């Protein structure tokens, strides 16, 4: 098995009575896509290298140190006996071979770099730039899809006002990043004086913080049913939060309701008897009424507030009208006082 650059450099320096020094001197980019920079000092030389992980950055620094030593005339064993790379390439982060994408093309026919994605998220940078300077919201669209199934090439266009840039890559995500990169760099170049106070690191940190907030909100709102709840009982989830006294009180209030009573006030009255909360909101032009607590949560939507409250009222009535064969509450066994309680007549319109 071929020795790593770190091992070869270590052996060479030990023979010379020295030990190479490694130090992580920088870390940039968001946490999910960070880039690390390592510095290596040995035999009077100093080199730096960047990569997606500390291990890769350290290996790359050792390779560059061996290349510098070879250029100086030191005996370096193959395959590390080669001259240093040009400065432009040496400063690019090293990508693992499996993450390299097909060469991407941009509008204008020029070929882009073989490395699919930069350490920075240009989609996030472009969005932050547009928000900070109130330039509107960039719009992305997949405008091309070519190639065989095992080697697809997607083309994504990004538009902002009268400007449009396109890029192609083996994945839609990579093509979107490249298109955003071209438009972002164009705006920074031609609006340099206006955007001189735009700090990329701060913008990326803001984007990362917002993404984490959305992640926490989505994670907190994930419904996890009780382990003892059957799927067939989801429509009766309200009963899991109601004791026997509240159910009896709710059935009495339901039996006393007039047929033509306003659904908004009727729902509020009935839920107050049951100890439930009613909340209403407008979502996408629809009125949504939520009844809490419940497992799962109850949300009813309709065109208007009155219709939504009426639908929620019908649901609560049907739940209260439900009587299992053994007359037990969902998820709980009924006590003697509940099973011996006389049944309260329910109006015929309850199940309508």
From TrEMBL:
One of its GO terms (molecular function) is siRNA binding. One of its GO terms (biological process) is regulation of regulatory ncRNA processing. Residues 4-71, 121-189 form the DRBM domain. Residues 72-100 are annotated as: Disordered. Residues 75-87 have a biased composition (Pro residues). It comes from the Eukaryota. SMART domains: DSRM. Keywords: RNA-binding. SUPFAM superfamilies: dsRNA-binding domain-like. It holds the Pfam family dsrm. This is DRBM domain-containing protein. It comes from Pieris macdunnoughi. The lineage of its organism: Eukaryota, Metazoa, Ecdysozoa, Arthropoda, Hexapoda.
């Amino acid at each position: 098995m071929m020795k790593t650059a770190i091992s070869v450099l270590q052996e060479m320096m030990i023979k010379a009575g020295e030990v190479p020094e490694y130090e992580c001197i920088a870390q940039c980019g968001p946490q999910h896509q960070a880039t690390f920079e390592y510095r290596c000092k040995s035999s009077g030389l100093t080199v730096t290298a960047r990569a997606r992980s500390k291990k890769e950055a350290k290996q790359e620094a050792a390779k560059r140190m061996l290349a510098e030593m070879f250029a100086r005339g030191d005996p370096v064993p193959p395959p590390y006996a080669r001259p240093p790379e040009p400065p432009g390439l040496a400063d690019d982060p090293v990508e693992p071979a499996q993450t390299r994408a097909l060469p991407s093309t941009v509008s204008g026919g020029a070929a882009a770099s073989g490395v699919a994605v930069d350490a920075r998220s240009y989609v996030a940078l472009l969005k932050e730039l547009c928000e900070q300077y109130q330039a509107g919201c960039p719009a992305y669209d997949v405008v091309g899809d070519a190639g065989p199934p095992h080697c697809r090439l997607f083309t994504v266009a990004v538009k902002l006002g009268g400007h449009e840039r396109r890029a192609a890559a083996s994945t839609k995500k990579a093509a979107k990043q490249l298109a955003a990169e071209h438009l972002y760099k164009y705006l920074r170049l031609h609006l340099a004086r206006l955007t001189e106070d735009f700090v990329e690191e701060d913008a990326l940190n803001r984007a990362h913080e917002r993404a984490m907030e959305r992640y926490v909100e989505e994670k907190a709102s994930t419904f996890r049913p009780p382990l003892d709840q059957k799927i067939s009982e989801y429509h009766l989830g309200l009963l899991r939060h109601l004791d026997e006294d509240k159910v009896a009180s709710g059935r009495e209030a339901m039996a006393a309701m007039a047929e033509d009573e306003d659904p908004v006030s009727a729902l509020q009255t009935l839920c107050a008897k049951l100890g439930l909360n009613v909340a209403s909101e407008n979502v996408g032009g629809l009125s949504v009424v939520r009844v809490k607590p419940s497992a799962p949560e109850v949300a009813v939507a309709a065109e208007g507030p009155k219709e939504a409250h009426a639908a929620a009222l019908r649901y609560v009535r049907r739940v209260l009208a439900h009587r299992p064969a053994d007359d037990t509450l969902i998820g709980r066994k009924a006590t003697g006082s509940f099973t011996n309680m006389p049944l309260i007549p329910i109006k015929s319109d309850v199940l309508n």
